[in-house]
Amino acid sequence: MASKPSILHLGDPPRWHADLYSKLTTHFNVITPTAAERERPEFLKALKEKRWGNFIAIMRPFWNTGGEGGRVDREMISLFPEGVKVYASAGAGFDWVDTDILAERGIVYCNGAAASSDSVADSALFLIISTFRNLAWSQMAARSGNPDELFDAHKHSPTTAINPGGRILGIVGLGNIGYRIAQKAYLGLNMKIAYHDLFRKPKSVEEAVGATYYDTLDEMLGAADCIIVATPFSGKQLFTAEKFRKFKRGSRLINIARGPLVNEADLVEALKSGQLSACGLDVFENEPHVNKELCGLKQATLTAHTAGGTIDTHIGFEELCYKNTLGALLEGKAITPVNLHLIKAGKSKL
Length: 350
Description:
Pfam families: 2-Hacid_dh_C (PF02826). InterPro entries: D-isomer_2-hydroxyacid_DH (IPR050223), D-isomer_DH_CS (IPR029753), D-isomer_DH_NAD-bd (IPR006140), NAD(P)-bd_dom_sf (IPR036291). This protein has helices at about 20-25, 35-40, 40-50, 75, 100-105, 115-135, 135-145, 145-155, 175-190, 205-210, 215-225, 240-245, 265-275, 290-295, 310-330, and strands at about 5-10, 30, 55-60, 85-90, 110, 170, 190-195, 210-215, 225-230, 250-255, 275-280, 300. It is α/β, with parallel strands linked by helices. The protein has two domains: about 5-115 and about 310-340, 3-Layer(aba) Sandwich (Rossmann fold), CATH 3.40.50; about 120-300, NAD(P)-binding Rossmann-like Domain (Rossmann fold, 3-Layer(aba) Sandwich), CATH 3.40.50. It has a seven-stranded parallel beta sheet with strand order 8-7-6-9-10-11-12, with helices on both faces. It is elongated, with a radius of gyration of 22 Å.
C-alpha cells in the first residue's frame, strides 16, 4: 500500500476544528515539528537534512504560534522540497512572507483575511467614530483622574466633534476587509463611500454600498472627510508629508492595514498643523514601538494591533487554513490564494 503524502503543520495542535483535521490525517501524514525545531536555525537545518521528507504542503493554523522561524524568505523557500504546492497560514497580512518568491516556485500562498474581516471592520468603525467625535480626548481626560482635564474635555471637545453620518469615507483598498468596512459604514453610520483600488469593482458591488470609484488616490484624498487604509504593504511607504498635503484640510486618517504604510513623524506634523484633525491607528511604523509624540496627542486614537483580535477570528483562521490545504491538495483549488497572479501560466503546482 502506497504511503500517504506528508504535510508540515507548524504551531499548536488543532483546537476548534477536529473534523477538518481528521480529514487531513485521513488523506495525509501530518508532521508536527517541535517548538525547538520551529526556531529558525534548527528549522533551516532540518530542511537541509530533509528531516521531514518530501512534504507537499505547509500549514500554520494559528497566528500566535508557528512563525518562530521568522521571515519566509528566499533562504528558507529554497530549502522547501520540490513538491511543495501550497503554504496556508493564519493571519490577514502577508508582509512576513515573500509571496513573489513562493510564486517563482509555483507555490500558492493562502492567508486568513476572510476570517478576520468582521472583527477588523468593527474595530474600524470604532476608530471612525472616535476620530469624528474626539473620543480619544474624552477618554484621556477621564482616565487622567484630573477634574480640570475632565471638565475641559466635557466643555470643549464637543465644539469640534461631528457625526460621521453623511460624511465621505475614502477607502484605500476595497478587498475583503475594505469592502466589509464599506458595508458597515454605509449601512450602520450612513456614510458616503469612496474608494481607490488598483482594480475597479463591478457595478453591482459598488451600488450595494453606494461607492464612488476614484482613478487616482490624490483625487480621493482631496474629497474625503476620512481616509481609511486597508491595503497590503508592498514595501513602499504610502502616506508621507507629500501625501498629507493632498488631504482635505481637517480630515482624518485611519490605518488598520500595516504600520509602515504611514510615516508617523509626518503624520504628527500634519496633526499639529491642523491639516489633519485626527487619526486612528491600530498598527504602527516601528512595532512594537509607538511614536512618543503620537501617544501624547489627544487627536490620536491608538490601539495595540488588535483590530482582528477576537476568538471568532482565531477560530476562522484555523478553519480557513485547513480548508485551504484540503482544497488545494484534493481539489486543485485554494479558497483564499493571494499570489496566483504572480505565478506564471502553467507553473502553478495545483
